[in-house]
Design a protein that fits this description.
Blueprint (H helix, E strand, L loop, with lengths): L1 H17 L3 H12 L4 H7 L9 H28 L24 H15 L3 E2 L5 E3 H4 L19 E3 L2 E3 L5 H10 L5 E10 L11 E11 L4 H16 L5 E8 L2 E10 L16 E10 L1 H6 L8 E8 H9 L6 H4 L2 H4 L3
Helix pairs in contact: 1-2, 1-4, 2-4, 3-4, 5-10
The structure holds phenylalanine (PHE).
Length: 338
């Protein structure tokens, strides 16, 4: 009898340990401890046992029952946690797990910094598609088919009037259409743009821009200068100055290239600014009347300014990087520095 109990105990112990889920565990419990279970059977049959041996067998059977109940409870707990309990105490001398945290790409960080500055001035962030219609990318921006300015922005044409956008300026039109007839239109539009360029230290066929547009009644060049001056100081430091040089864009009139004073030499002239003391960071101007009209606004009543800056260019200046290609090579030795 005692031997039979001990074999039952071993078998039950193994089955409990092998149970893979609560249902299997319950099956084991019923098989040994249920009403018709094997251990229960032994207890029931005690009456037939020799009265002299009865207390010993009865005690052994009860002890086995309690042991199995305890093992069942332990296993139930393990299955709930989904892992076996550690047998030994936690060893504090073992090396810990190193959890490496990911980080934002430096271009993304700079983009978010730019966004933050303009959000602070009440601009909202707008978006447009990277596969853009030739109408939004060129025509509506006063660059009709055959316009020579299209040459400098050759890109990938899909045919059927679609193109990989060469600039974020089409978002100007989209935003005006969306907001019209309400005022103001006050957006920035960050995003990826594409041009047929050979990659070198300062060019890439894929790069990023942030467009800016403010349309309202009575907007003047002074507003443009004020906003960009504030941006430059927040981005490059309190002492930063800006200057506007006359330029040409089909969608602004007048147009300007905007320089910031070189942060590295404080305008005295160094290698980075090629001795001029100034660094070009963006193109800008007063929104052309035809562009306002394409957006649905009356150029007699409203005016606006627009600007477009290259994120890579700003990032290179801000982070002291002298080759744009490193932003796209995804070499961790470079990326981990930021
Ligand atoms: N879209 C122009 C470019 O890519 C930049 C620009 C934007 C100029 C808005 C003026 C106004 O070169």
């Amino acid at each position: 009898m005692l031997e039979q109990l001990s074999r039952l105990g071993d078998a039950a112990g193994e089955e409990i340990a092998a149970a893979k889920d609560a249902a299997q565990l319950e099956e084991v419990r019923v098989r040994y401890l249920g009403k018709r279970g094997l251990v229960t059977g032994v207890l029931r049959g005690l009456g037939t046992v020799d009265p002299v041996r009865r207390p010993v067998v009865g005690e052994a059977a009860n002890r086995l029952k309690l042991e199995l109940e305890a093992k069942l409870a332990t296993r139930r707990g393990e299955l709930q946690e989904g892992r076996p309990r550690p047998r030994a105490a936690f060893d504090v001398t073992l090396p810990g797990w190193v959890v490496t945290r990911g980080g934002a790409h430096p271009l993304r960080r700079i983009q978010e910094e730019i966004e933050g500055i303009f959000l602070g001035m009440g601009f909202t962030v707008a978006e447009g598609p990277e596969i853009e219609s030739e109408y939004y990318n060129f025509e509506a921006l006063n660059m009709p088919a055959g316009h020579p300015a299209r040459d400098m922005q050759d890109s990938f044409y899909f045919g059927d009037g679609w193109v990989l956008r060469t600039q974020t300026s089409p978002v100007q039109i989209r935003s005006m259409e969306e907001t019209c007839p309400r005022l103001p239109v006050k957006i920035i539009a960050p995003g990826r743009v594409y041009r047929r360029d050979q990659a070198d230290a300062t060019h890439s066929p894929i790069f990023h821009q942030v467009e800016g547009l403010l349309v309202d009644e009575g907007i003047s060049l002074a507003n443009l200068k004020g906003v960009l001056g504030l941006f430059a100081r927040e981005m490059f430091g309190e002492g930063t100055r800006i200057r506007l040089r006359p330029s040409f864009f089909p969608f602004t009139e007048p147009s300007a290239e905007v320089d910031v004073s070189c942060a590295i030499c404080a305008g005295r002239g160094c290698r980075t600014c090629k001795g001029t003391g100034w660094l070009e960071i963006l193109g800008a101007g007063m929104v052309h009347p035809r562009v306002l009209a394409a957006g649905g606004y009356d150029p007699e009543r409203v005016s606006g300014f627009a600007f477009g800056m290259g994120i890579e260019r700003i990032a290179m200046l801000k982070l002291g990087v002298d080759d744009l290609r490193v932003f796209f090579q995804n070499d961790l030795r470079f990326l981990e520095q930021f």
